[in-house]
Amino acid sequence: MVRTRGWIFIVLSLSCAGCGASRHGTCLNGDWYKIGREDGAEGKTAIHHFHNRANTCSAFNFAADERTYLKGRHAGLKEYCTISGMYGHGILAKPYRPVCGNQFESLFRLAYRWGHNASPTVNQLAQVEEAIRNADDQLREERIRPKRKERIRDEIERLEAERARLKHELDRIQRLASNEIGRLRYQLGNKGTDLSHYSIRGANSGH
Questions:
Q1: Which of 10, 54, 149, 168 counts the most CB atoms within 10 A of its CB?
Q2: How many Å apart are CA 100 and CA 192, to the nearest integer?
Q3: Which strand (E) or helix (H) includes residue 34?
Q4: What does R_g of the chain's alpha carbons equal in angstroms?
């Protein structure tokens, strides 16, 4: 089955990995494999983004290493071009980039679409989880009046019920996604397409 709950925490902690000062640091270290891998994992096209990166680093007087960059991008694409990779990008509402080849395009687009369908529920669940943590923190305060404590407990009870409802909804989406992806994989397999690396189990493990 397609993994969903792990993405809840990614939604909360997502940050830009290649921005501002970090780019200068990467240029300084000359880690073009890392740059390429990050771009590949995002499905970014090689020529355009390599030139952008090279121009950024040239401003700091550092030379670009295209061969190492392309090796890193190839490794990153192995993460992007998976059912779980596409599903996760859909959940995070990242753009779909058709860089994986036409052979698996329909399978990856389907996984991305299901992730996009799950995205609102995942975001709501992340917000509820954060609200529960905040309420628990308030309960641990030393000077809190009994009435206030009672109201917080009532709110936690309400939030926990909402969390259970959202998890049930995610489970429903997960089952539908897994079933439809499984059917398409079966159809493609019958046409002689090698899908040994693109199983539903692979989506669960992230490989």
A1: 54
A2: 18
A3: helix 32-41
A4: 21
